[in-house]
Amino acid sequence: MTRNTNAPAGAGALRQSTTGSVALDGALWLVQHGFPVFPCDHPMLRRCAGLHKTCDGSRGKHPAVAFTRAWTLDERKVHEAFARGLRNPAVAVGACSGPDGTQLVVIDSDRPGAIEDVASARGETWPATMRVRTAKGYHDYLWAPGTLKLGNGLGQLQGQFDGDVRAGNAYVIGPGARHASGVLYELEDAEQPPVIAPAWLLDALVTKPQFAARRTRWQDASPHVPGQPRSVRGLATFVLDSRPGDRNNRLFWAACRAAEDAQDGREDAQDALLAAAVQAGLSEREALATIRSAYNRTGATA
User: Fold this and answer.
1) Is residue 224 part of a domain?
2) For residue 99, what pLDDT is reported?
3) Half-sphere CA count of 230, side-chain side, radius 13 A
4) 176: Cα separation from own chain's centroid
5) Does residue 38 sit in the same domain as residue 114?
6) Residues 249 and 196 grouped into a single domain
7) Same structural domain for residues 94 and 240?
8) Residue 110 and residue 286 in contact, taking contact as beta carbons nearer than 8 Å
9) pLDDT of residue 53
10) Are residues 114 and 193 in the same domain?
11) Does 97 share its domain with 239?
12) Do residues 176 and 235 share a domain?
């Protein structure tokens, strides 16, 4: 992938721009470095700009175009797309081709140090690679052999890694984007390109777990109990209706709302959200980490 030395300087340069230019600068940086871009909703818009019929509340992450075919590497088209109003830049992962036909895989850590902990537990060291700071953790960009069948599955990392993987027909929000919490997605080092994914990681992603997930005390717990406030039931149902690939995002959003309610004196919904998240397919460890992160984000105590 050819690097353009005239590209924006990265996080520092983006931070100094106005809100609209931050997103445009991020999108231009991406296409100048070979990453296919498309526009997503922006949380500062009054109404969601996503193509879906009903917004699930995860503002700033919904594609505003059919991203599998409407992505672009053309700077002129990027200017046109981002001139139509506030939009977050996103990367069409499956459309990205690296050196020698490699494919892009993005490791989405839901907390700082999540993937490093996985590597350490296996006696490995996580490599320095292109990294984007997100609202909760990091997006690490890596190259993988094009022959591997990768998707959004965690393989053997299921229940071990606090996060998700994005490959194949997937997308990630890019640098210059604004999270619903107000956090700006920023490059850690604009000069660091993606590196080849370590063999241990690829082996784990393409290998199914050897054992069924351990059942927890929340596996069969009902997130709805008699007399529970309607707001708590609604948040738990929102999490229960999550699909693979969006469970952490929906849980984080619901936990933020629950934390805000708790601060206002209404019933704390942590147990209901945890039960709903486990039944939706998250491990208890993952769900707890996401809930704690949300409560910390709002200033509440989880």
Assistant:
1) no
2) 92
3) 0
4) 14
5) yes
6) no
7) no
8) yes
9) 73
10) yes
11) no
12) no
Q: For 206-228, give one letter per residue: b (16+ CB within 10 A) or e.
A: eeeeeeeeeeeebeeeebeeeee
* Whole-number pLDDT of residue 226: 67
The range of the structural domain enclosing residue 77 comes to: 11-205
Around 236, how many Cα atoms within 13 Å sit in the side-chain half-sphere? 22
Choose the final residue of a domain: 205, 239, 264: 205
Tell me the pTM.
Answer: 0.67
- Tally of domains in the chain: 2
| Residues, the chain | 302
The tokens for 79 are 């200017």
Half-sphere exposure of 108 (CA within 13 A, CB side): 25
Q: Residues 116, 189: one domain?
A: yes
55 with 109, same domain? Answer: yes
pLDDT at 108: 96
- Cα–Cα nearest to 20, from 44, 53, 4: 44
Tokens of 1: 């992938």
How far is it, in rounded angstroms, from Cα 136 to Cα 121?
22
- Mean pLDDT of each 10-residue bin along the chain, 302 residues long: 40 48 94 96 91 80 91 96 92 94 96 95 96 96 95 88 92 95 95 97 88 55 70 86 83 87 75 87 86 77 52
